[in-house]
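U., I forgot to send this yesterday:
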Amino acid sequence: MSSPLNNVKLFAGSGTEELAEKISKSYGAKLGDKILSRFSDGEIQPFYTESIRGNDVFIIQSTNQPSDNLVELLLMIDAAKRASAHYITAVVPYFGYARQDRKDKPRVSIGAKLIANLITAAGAHRIMTMDLHAAQIQGFFDIPVDHLDGAIIFVPYIKSLNLPNLTIASPDMGGSYRARTFAKYFNAEVIICDKQRKRANEVESMSIIGDVTDQDVVLIDDICDTAGTLTKAAALIMESGARSVRAVCTHAVLSGEAYERIENSMLAEMIVTDTIQVDPEKLKQSKKLKVLSTGELFADAITRVHEHGTISELFQVD
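Result:
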């Protein structure tokens, strides 16, 4: 679907420009013009250099680190509201702070709820995102949420590999529902890696629930941060008799030593999307990273939202 109308305008945040270009190309319209200026202390001030009065505005920006990405999104929403935009949709391919979705220990914030409140308070009428860390985060918003499913991108790719003994795996207990949902597309068995953490980003121990002997295992996760969990799971799976192991992960945060861990791991490949831009130099050097684009999917969703069409059709995986 690609039938842009005159009153639709797409704008890119500086943290998601490459993906925004792909979305705008698939949608069939150029990105709108804006300027991001900075005061000498680093404070940012985005402003639109064209009229958006009465327009349906889609602001494309993931909220991965640095925190400027989030602040820029909020300021762009506020600027659009004050410029009399008719309807503002925050297109947030990667919704940061989603791992802080509950009070799992005393005296901590529920960051995902706070960010939801900020986006709403800034003036967004709608949010569009993909593969939230927990689907119930949608309930943190008091505005409509279009929660796109990365499976529509990953499943065709995995099918193209023609893996003879496919088994789906979750790298932790928390991702078991995601893995089981994914496995239904292949009528495949599911195994789970049960991990114990010392603290965030540090795994103490891990064990496998299920049999992986002679299986071609695909690990399913939503976020790859330091790659510690995925690479440990891959090593354990191979040591347990699997024939191959690869990982599918929607959001490539890839912080710290993630790139090195992936390259030195037992993974045959790591398949991610472009919701967060992968370092071009690291990608060029990598033998294992493969990036699939979400541009066409988001463009299709934007068209359907603007034309008041159904989004549910975008969840039909071939």
